[in-house]
From TrEMBL:
Domain N-acetyltransferase, residue spans: 2-91
TM regions (residue ranges): none
SUPFAM superfamilies: Acyl-CoA N-acyltransferases (Nat) (SSF55729)
Source organism of this protein record: Alicyclobacillus dauci
Protein name: GNAT family N-acetyltransferase
InterPro entries: Acyl_CoA_acyltransferase, GNAT_dom
Length: 111
């Protein structure tokens, strides 16, 4: 898997992932309702990449992409959780969309 900054090309994949209620069940987010939500997220993530100062409650988001196929299967990052910005957490949200993804998920579980 590859971790990389988000680009505009990732908006459709992120909408596919974040519009599913099961993908936001354990997060403070609601399922996305339109592609506008994906573009708003992209603009937010890009603003964090551009900010050179450490800001209170910072967050950084990265696309998780399958190396062999180039398919974006989720996101990860680090930053202050919604419930306590004095902490820093590492977070990852992944979805399985093909048989290939199942193998990737199994490898992740074993690590």
């Amino acid at each position: 898997m590859i971790l990389r900054p988000f680009t505009e090309n990732d908006c459709r994949a992120m909408y596919r992932i974040q519009s599913k209620p099961e993908m936001t069940k354990y997060t403070p987010d609601e399922p996305w309702m339109s592609m506008d939500d994906a573009y708003n997220f992209l603009n937010f993530a890009k603003s964090l990449y551009a900010d050179q100062q450490v800001i209170k409650g910072f967050r950084y988001f990265f696309a998780v992409q399958v190396k062999e196929s180039g398919v974006v299967i989720g996101y990860c990052g680090l930053g202050g959780p919604e419930f306590d910005r004095t902490l820093t957490e590492v977070f990852i949200v992944l979805t399985a969309i093909t048989g290939e993804m199942g193998m990737q998920r199994k490898r992740l579980t074993l690590c």
